Amino acid sequence: MEKITLPKASQLTSPNPVTVVCTQKPDGSTNLATVSWWTYLSYNPGMIAYAMAKTSYSGELVRNDKRVILTIPGAELRDVVLGCGTTTGRNTDKASKFKIQLAEVEGSSIKIPVHSRVAIVSKLKEYHEVGDHYLYICDVEQVYGNEGEEALFAWNGYAQLRPAK
After folding, report:
1. With helix as H, strand as E and coil as C, how does 88-155 read?
2. Residue 6: what pLDDT?
3. What is the CATH number of the domain that holds 27?
4. 3-17, 100-114, 115-129, 144-158, range with the lowest pLDDT
5. Which of 3, 5, 88, 135 is the most exposed place for a label (fewest CB within 10 A)?
6. Which domain holds residue 77?
């Protein structure tokens, strides 16, 4: 084996999961942010975790509001998901900018992209500093799924998004 960088390791472990974190802005609109790392922590009780850069506006929103929905984007969103991760929602309505149709989720005022394979409605339990990111640990409140949507994955270290086929 040869010594490599962590970004190179992400290329070698492709495909990697892609998630859109949905939070609510103070004006009631939905903010969308793409994250590349999340995991199930526990099935009983239901818990998940995800990591976001410390500077993330979505992270700020979830730390203040404690509510978040993680979605697994469907293949229809392939061309816009990366834009949601490289554009700040602080002064941009990403749903409008990227023409993402949103849907309501029962029991939440946060909306999600219509083309989502899974939506995990959660409440922030705690967060921890992990280098240049925060690790958000959340209690799962509800989970919704749509088997008709193909999940997106990142290939070649996030250079390309497509289903895992």
Report:
1. CCCCCCHHHHCCCCEEEECCEEEEEECCEEEEEEEEEEEEEEECCEEEEEEEEEEEEECCCCCECEEE
2. 76
3. 2.30.110.10
4. 3-17
5. 3
6. 6-162
